[in-house]
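Researcher: I'm comparing several assemblies side by side, and this is the next one on my list. It has 590 residues spread over two chains. Same procedure as the others: predict the full complex and return the structure.
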Amino acid sequence: MSEPNGKATPAACGAVVIRTDEVARDVRVIALEIPQDVPVPTPGQFYQVDCGGGREHLLPRPIGAFDARSSNGVLSLAFLVESVGWGTERLCSLVPGDSIRILGPLGRGFSAAEGKALIVAGGVGLAPLHFLASSMDKAGEPYVLLAGVASKERYIAPLSTLTGEVQVFSDDGTIGENGLVCDAAGPRLSDGGFSKVYACGPELMMAVVAGAAEAQGVPCEVSLDSRMACGIGACRGCVKAGADGKNLCVCTDGPVFDSRAVKWTSPLNAPLGSNLKREFPERESK
Amino acid sequence: MTADLAVQLAGINLNNPVLLASGTAGYGKELAPVIDLSRLGAVILKSVTVEPSRGNPEPRIWETASGMLNSIGLENVGIDALVGEVLPSLKDLGLPLIASIAGDTVRGFAQLGAKLESAGGVTAVEINVSCPNVEKGGIQFGVDPGATKTVVMAVRENCSLPVFVKLSAAVSNITQIADAAGQAGAFGLSLINTIQGLAIDAARRRPRLGGVTGGLSGPAIKPIALKAVWDCYRATGLPIIGGGGVYDSEDVVEFMLAGATAVTVGSAIFNDPARVVEIVEGLPDAIERAGASSAKELIGGLRV
């Protein structure tokens, strides 16, 4: 990584779709070119991507960089997008020659590891971690990447382009090891030799990985996902609860955080009506 | 000839009528790296409360058809940080700043007004009596003419800056409340705040927002906002900051024809922060298309 944790000034720009490839069921890599001199993202940084919905769909979608390189004043940028709703479906239906508007790079990316890293990815949480791993490949830095997918048809093909050690897990055993990737993190860490853990995926998965890292005394960085509006720290729409009782602003303080800074709860999993009470006990007194 | 964009809002000279709406633009600084704020008429800062507030539990944002719900719940740094840190850092921004205050009691509103009076760096004050996402204060004041009047008088007694009262359209008769605000000494009105709504994840039988309900904004509420502006303009004649679902220059013209002197852009900047500057750039043509040669000619010019 050239600029770990780098925060370049974001730029709003038009990007042209160069190619798109289906790399797993409902998952595509969308390769873009931005024909101007704009900042290059570091692994973990993201873009606000306008899905072209105009008035009908106001909000851009925050999407992490999957790959990026700059040459001759042109930024080549790729996103890994799973079609899960209106916006991502629109992105997955783009064809070469289409233009989209993006704002970025935004947020804080991963910081560098000093020594071997354990990288744990759940589903399309692989996106920023694949970018991280391929950057580490280029720099000749060692890592082990554990990638969890639901099933064989959800295996994300670009994993095979990485030169580091990659181990695949599937929920149904149709590819790689049968089991949850987060459960594999602990045993792997107890083998020793890791200086850092990186995780991105479902929140529960990251919580388990963060717990395993903490138990082994290895620093862990997680990349959080959140519904966003502005992406630049103005609206406070994307915040998550921090371990210290303060809010973490995912778009500008993150999306990458030290796992110990995060309060690992998922309010909407709680019984109906208990949200305010559980998260904000001071509000019960009314 | 290019249409003249300058307007006078209750005695405040604005280079153009396009403002950033409170809540969407943070404290101004957040947008500064992305757009040239000096191109705008003014910025209305995020509402502050007496004490800093953490706001509501997440998730706080949900996109809806032609709009969005938010349940931020007035997360803010508090009046002391606004006065001590934020306002001094905005000195060189080069445009009028309108502070927004949200007390949870009348006394709180009075305190907030008093602190802004002595702060400096603020051109006007927006009194937010219509936030739908807080348990105390907020819309509790804004649905009641008497309570609105009490709040406005409390601020006016403690603060000599021009005050605008931000109202909700989700009331039985907005003109009564607007009237009450005017009688209490409001310089003008700010219309409208978000409208309470609910989004549901049917498969999980759960609300989409951590605060259960939220405030609806975006193009979906534009017709409601236009009517509120039109009604209050005719009933009170007070200067109006209008907004709700503004997405392009044409929308600004529509709000001015309904009676607004200035127009806020809110949720549309999430789509693209630069949109607000593009709205200013497109305004001269939009004004000419409406058969006018200046922005101020449009105010209340709707023909019925």
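Model: For your comparison table: The first strand of chain B starts at residue 7 and ends at 9.
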